[in-house]
Design goal:
It holds the Pfam family Methyltransf_25. The protein is α/β, with parallel strands linked by helices. 37% of the residues lie in helices and 29% in strands. It has one domain: Rossmann fold (3-Layer(aba) Sandwich). It has 6 helices and 9 strands.
């Protein structure tokens, strides 16, 4: 089956910006206590349920993967962009990173205790996002947890420049009601929802949702 044009565009854009993206966002979590709190809560819940493998889906340069490992999780990263994976491996040589698509994860069914998609579903058109959530549910074991982060809205932003580079990439802001619907259709049960106001340079509210695959 041929690759969707948006997938190719996403790979090219992130290959292009990989090094500068990593440098600019390296310490981003340090200034975002609510973001860290959601990652910490996710980690505690996974560990309380017995631990196990956790995938950072769309891991980029690996900063969230590294944070999850610091929180005690057996975490690894998967990203569509070979350029991002090269940067992640260089920045975090002791951690595992693989090139792969979120739409067809290189993982077996029921393999994960948890998965994180930290602003990584935002480049998939809304009509195909349900397929991503179904794939996330496939690789989670019963009782496994999914943590999502995304920008709130109902519009699409076409990016032509980012991190000092010319690119062509669409980013879809998400309706919380629609995300709830898609999670439920994938068989995932929402357990925690957090929405916060934007902080410069953010322009729209940010949302985080923790969902579980029923046992």
């Amino acid at each position: 089956m041929s690759e969707h044009a948006d997938v190719a565009a996403t790979r090219l854009a992130y290959d292009t910006v990989a090094s500068d993206y990593a440098a600019l966002l390296r310490d981003e979590l340090a200034s975002k206590p609510l973001d860290r709190a959601m990652l910490s809560a996710f980690a505690e819940e996974v560990l309380a349920a017995g631990g196990g493998a956790v995938a950072d889906l769309g891991c980029g340069p690996g900063r969230v993967t590294a944070q999850l490992v610091e929180l005690g999780l057996d975490a690894f990263g998967i990203d569509l962009s070979p350029g991002m994976i090269d940067v992640a491996r260089s920045s975090h040589p002791g951690l595992r990173f693989e090139v792969g698509s979120m739409a067809a994860l290189p993982l077996g069914g029921d393999e994960l205790a948890g998965a994180v998609a930290w602003y990584s579903v935002i480049h998939t058109p809304p009509e195909r996002q349900g397929e991503l959530f179904a794939e996330f549910a496939r690789v989670l074991r019963p009782g496994g947890l999914l943590l999502l982060a995304f920008q709130v809205g109902d519009d699409v932003v076409h990016l032509t420049k980012a991190y000092g580079h010319d690119i062509a990439l669409d980013a879809y802001r998400q309706s919380p009601a629609r995300i709830r619907m898609l999670l439920a259709e994938a068989g995932l049960v929402e357990t925690v929802w957090l929405e916060r106001a934007p902080r410069a340079p953010e322009k729209v509210p940010q949302a985080y949702v923790l969902a579980a695959l029923p046992e």
